[in-house]
Amino acid sequence: MWWKMLLTFWALMRQPGVPVGDTVDSDPSEFVPVPHGPQTVAEEDITRAAIYGEHYGGDMIFPDDWNTSDAGIKDERYRWPQYQGFVRVPYVIDQNSRHLQRVVLEGMEIYHKQTPIKFVPRRNERDYVRIFSGNGCWSMIGRNGGRQDLSLGQGCAYVGLVVHELGHAIGLFHEHQRSDRDKYINVYLQNVIPNQRHNFGLTNRNNELIYTNYDYDSIMHYGSYAFSRNPRGLRTMEAKNGHPLVEPWQKKGFTQSDIVTIKKLYKY
User: Fold this and answer.
1) I need a labelling partner for 217 at 20 to 30 A (CA). Which of 36, 88, 239, 252 fits?
2) Which residues fall in a coiled-coil region (predicted)?
3) What's the pTM?
4) Which residues are catalytic?
């Protein structure tokens, strides 16, 4: 009889769940934040400061030979290569940033399901994206050559921001900086932090590719209070047709226009 009880106990222990011998780590630093946006005003303030940072547009770093006044996505040197029917983007997650893994993989899966982009763990590729927990949310634009960094610091571990920053890494620019933006958006520079007003500059028309109508809901579009002197009272952008402008961290993924843009950018 005792051996039947032992077999029953062993079978129960082998059921799917936590593997035998594993323990649940109760260290809060190991827990991934809620993936679909800040839950409190304080958390949102941290996120706002993280993405609306000191880089151009708040979160973009350009190749050394790329003039930001002419920035766009036309130059094919900055595209990732195609391989066996998809666009292959090698990546690593920094050893000190393993807490980001779940939300990063969730963001990548959105690309895998809806676009030709495939993020693959790096083996020995020369060109790759290193994802780490740096100061703020930011990414280098397009394929730069060699190792290029993508930061998801404090306040950035949300699916919408992961998809947004990965968009920069594959070569996407901000929707609200399109050359035709002013046909659709009112910008209130008087409400913008004075030293951040340059972040509403427009892309040079001769160096951009526009594949779709203006998309207020694009994952690459900032919200109504971007860079505001008073982010709970002074709008910096407003759609002329009254369409709400939602922050990227409040979004869960692509619009259809985003998908079309990525496919056409990579000629699919």
Assistant:
1) 88
2) none
3) 0.84
4) 165
